[in-house]
């Protein structure tokens, strides 16, 4: 059972997050704001929004390379919260050209940028061009690329001269422990892969389970530099390395 101090800290964090979500969903009317859904953090967001009484648009990137458990999880969330979830698919022509030229595992040879670009970034960019704001589950302690994530920001990566996009990161101050305490206490559904050592879950070929001493992002693109481990959804986080 959580101590009184822990409960106080958690209640304060949850109260602050509720207020942030309430503010975001009041400022941006339905149809102009959406939640990007994939991981444990995003279900916490959906649960908080659900308990606040809001109906919000939800989308998820269906790269075509997700684990079977992840597809089952998406379906579970859809029914649990009685919420439609829009699945964004890659452009068939762009994907066909990539696979024809470089095969299904090009990311092992030349990095994940091109594959993520086709399977994630292009569909996301298309979706965000129709929104004024989006809500993500980014946390500061997720990786070295996210230590400065603010609660709210102008999305420098996806804003255009015609459309300034606001990005909300209501869980920026949450730790992994905070997320999992919320999930356990509130019996929130989660991806069963988490019970098998998977912490940060992405596409099946680019995700592996991690050991107890490893950082959660160690299971993503483990053949690449820590500073480059963003798939482009949050590319403004990527740390630029200046060679000496
Ligand atoms: S995570 Fe891997 S499989 Fe998925 S889009 Fe990126 S490079 Fe491709």
How would you characterize the overall build of this protein?
There is one protein chain. This protein is an alpha/beta fold. It has a single domain, classed as HUPs (Rossmann fold), CATH 3.40.50. Helices cover 37% and strands 9% of the residues. It has 7 helices and 6 strands. It has a 6-stranded mixed beta sheet. Strand 1 (33-36), helix 2 and strand 2 form a beta-alpha-beta unit. The protein is globular, with a radius of gyration of 18 Å. The N and C termini lie far apart (51 Å). Bound molecules: iron/sulfur cluster (SF4). Iron/sulfur cluster binds at residues 63, 65, 107, 112, 115-116, 119-120, 202-203, 205-206, 231.
Query: In the CATH scheme, what's the topology name?
Result: Rossmann fold
β-strand number = 6
Report the sheet-strand fraction: 5-15%
What's the main sheet like? 6 strands, mixed
Order of helices and strands: HEHEHEHHHEEEH
Task: Write the topology of this structure.
Elements: H1 4-27, E1 33-36, H2 40-52, E2 57-61, H3 68-80, E3 86-88, H4 92-102, H5 107-110, H6 113-128, E4 133-135, E5 152-154, E6 166-168, H7 176-185
Parallel strand pairs: 1-2, 1-4, 2-3, 4-6
Antiparallel strand pairs: 5-6
Helix pairs in contact: 1-2, 2-7
The structure holds iron/sulfur cluster.
Brief overview:
The protein has helices at about 5-25, 40-50, 70-80, 90-100, 105-110, 115-130, 175-185, and strands spanning about 35, 55-60, 85-90, 135, 150-155, 165-170.
